[in-house]
Design goal:
- The protein contains 13 helices and 19 strands.
- By secondary structure, the protein is of the alpha/beta class.
C-alpha cells in the first residue's frame, strides 16, 4: 500500500480522489461501520469549488448544492446592516455552494468507489497506532471492528484525516489538551420550508455576544420543487466557566433540545422568516460547543502528516472547515507527486505550503472580527434602527468586508490569478 488515509470525511475522500488523479495509490479507512449522510449544512467557498471542479465533480455539485446570491447581516430585529454578493456575482471564476455535509460526503464517496474501486474505502476499520519503520515503509496497526481483531499494514505514507479527535494527531502530539471552548453553544438543524429572503440568501442575524442566527438553503432538489431545505445555526454565548458547552466530548452528532434553544429567539423575525416557527419545525436538532485547538508547531514527522480538522480545527466563522480540508488534499497530492518517490519530502513540502497559511485562518476565525461589528450595532441600537448609517461609520461597515477577507483566506484576484493545484 502506498498512501493510507485515516478518515473518510470530506478531507479524506478528497485526498483519495486527488492522489488517484496524480497517479498515486491510496486506500482509506474509517472506524464507522457505514458512511451515512449525517450532519447539516456547510458552505464551500470558491477556492474549494474550484478544486472539486478540477476533479471532475462540478456537474454533481451543481445538481446537489445551492449557489447563494448574497450574504446579508441583520440586527436582532431584522434590520439590514451589510450585504455582499457571493461566488460568481462577487467576481470569482467559480461559484460558492451551500450544501448538506452528508450529501457532499456521499458524492465524494461515490466518486472514490467509481474511480478507485469498491475496496478503496474500508469502513469498520479504525486506526490504532503507528508501529515501527521497516526500511522505507511504516507499519500501521488497524482494528477490524466487526471481527474485533487487530492487524498491521505496511505503507509508504500515512495521512491522518480523522477529525477533531484524531487518533493520529494524538500519537504525534501526546498530552495535548482537550479542544478549547470559547463559551458559545451552537444548535444546528435543517427544515423543509418555503423559500425566504429571496430564495438564495445566506442570512446572519444578531450578535454572538448574546445570540446569533445563520440561515441558508442547501438543496437544489428542494429548490426545483418550489421548496427550501433551510439550514440554520443558532449561536448563544455563556460564561466559559459554566462549562455548559462541554458536557462530554465535542460531537457533531449530539442531539439537542428545542426547549434549550427556542427561548433565546422568541419573537425573532427576519423579513419573511419567522425564526421560532423554523426552529420548531426542525425534526432533529444537533448541539455542539464551538471549539478549536491551538495551532500546531508541526503536523507530522517521517512518513506521517495530518489534514483537515485533524491538523487545524477552527471555529465555523468563515465557512472554512470543509473548504480548507479540500485545499489541503489538493496541495498534498501535488506535493507528493512532485517529490515522488520520496514520500517524506512530499509530506514536508505539503506542510510548508499549508501549515502557516491555515494556522493564520484558525487565529483569524478565533478573533471573529465581523462579529465585533455586529456587537457594536447591538450595543448602539438595542431596539433597532431605521438607517444603518446612523449606527455605523463607513469605516466600520468596510471592516466587515475586511473581516471576511481575513477569515476566508483567499481573495478574488488572488484565486482567479493563481494556477491550478492539480498535477498534469
Amino acid at each position: 500500500m502506498d498512501v493510507l488515509v485515516a478518515g473518510a470525511g470530506i478531507g479524506g475522500l478528497t485526498t483519495a480522489l486527488s492522489l488517484h488523479a496524480a497517479g498515486i495509490g491510496v486506500r482509506v479507512v474509517d472506524a464507522v461501520e457505514q458512511l451515512r449522510p449525517v450532519g447539516v449544512g456547510i458552505n464551500l467557498l470558491p477556492y474549494a469549488v474550484r478544486e472539486l471542479t478540477e476533479l471532475g465533480l462540478g456537474a454533481e455539485l451543481a445538481a446537489t448544492a445551492v449557489p447563494p446570491d448574497e450574504m446579508v447581516h441583520f440586527d436582532r430585529h431584522g434590520n439590514r446592516i451589510w450585504s455582499e454578493p457571493r461566488g460568481l456575482a462577487l467576481g470569482y471564476h467559480w461559484p460558492q455552494y451551500s450544501v448538506h455535509r452528508g450529501a457532499l460526503q456521499l458524492l465524494l464517496l461515490d466518486a472514490v468507489r467509481d474511480r478507485l474501486g469498491e475496496r478503496a474505502v474500508h469502513t469498520g476499520t479504525a486506526f490504532v497506532r503507528m508501529a515501527d519503520r521497516e526500511g522505507a515503509a511504516l507499519r500501521v496497526v488497524l482494528r477490524d471492528r466487526g471481527r474485533a481483531r487487530e492487524y498491521s499494514v505496511r505503507v509508504a505514507a500515512l495521512v491522518g484525516a480523522d477529525g477533531l479527535h484524531s487518533a493520529v494527531r494524538a500519537q504525534l502530539h501526546p498530552g495535548e489538551r482537550p479542544p478549547l471552548w470559547n463559551g458559545i453553544r451552537m444548535w444546528r438543524g435543517t427544515a423543509d420550508w418555503h423559500p425566504v429572503l429571496g430564495g438564495r440568501t445566506v442570512a446572519v442575524a444578531g450578535s454572538n455576544a448574546t445570540a446569533k442566527l445563520v440561515v441558508y438553503p442547501i438543496s437544489r432538489h428542494a429548490e426545483e420543487r418550489g421548496r427550501a431545505l433551510l439550514n440554520w445555526v443558532a449561536e448563544v454565548r455563556f460564561p466559559v466557566e459554566h462549562h455548559l458547552g462541554l458536557a462530554g466530548p465535542a460531537d457533531w452528532n449530539r442531539s439537542g433540545r428545542l426547549s434549550d434553544v427556542l427561548p433565546h429567539y422568541a419573537g425573532w423575525r427576519i423579513g419573511d422568516l419567522d425564526v421560532p416557527a423554523l426552529l420548531a419545525a426542525t425534526r432533529h436538532i444537533l448541539e455542539y460547543p464551538m471549539v478549536d485547538r491551538d495551532p500546531l508547531p508541526f503536523w507530522g514527522r517521517g512518513p506521517v502528516t495530518l489534514l483537515g480538522d485533524a491538523a487545524h480545527p477552527m471555529y465555523p466563522v468563515g465557512s472554512n472547515g470543509g473548504s480548507q480540508a479540500i485545499l489541503d488534499a489538493r496541495v498534498l497530492a501535488r506535493c507528493l507527486a512532485l517529490a515522488s518517490p520520496d514520500r517524506e519530502a512530499g509530506l514536508r513540502a505539503y506542510e510548508s505550503v499549508r501549515r502557516e497559511a491555515v494556522n493564520a485562518v484558525v487565529l483569524a476565525n478565533r478573533d471573529m472580527p465581523a462579529d465585533r461589528v455586529l456587537q457594536t450595532v447591538a450595543e448602539r441600537a438595542p431596539e433597532g434602527f431605521a438607517h444603518v448609517q446612523d449606527v455605523l461609520t463607513p469605516d466600520e461597515l468596510a471592516a466587515i468586508d475586511e473581516a471576511y477577507r481575513s477569515t476566508t483566506g483567499m481573495d478574488v484576484a488572488e484565486l482567479n490569478a493563481r494556477g491550478s493545484w492539480g498535477v498534469g
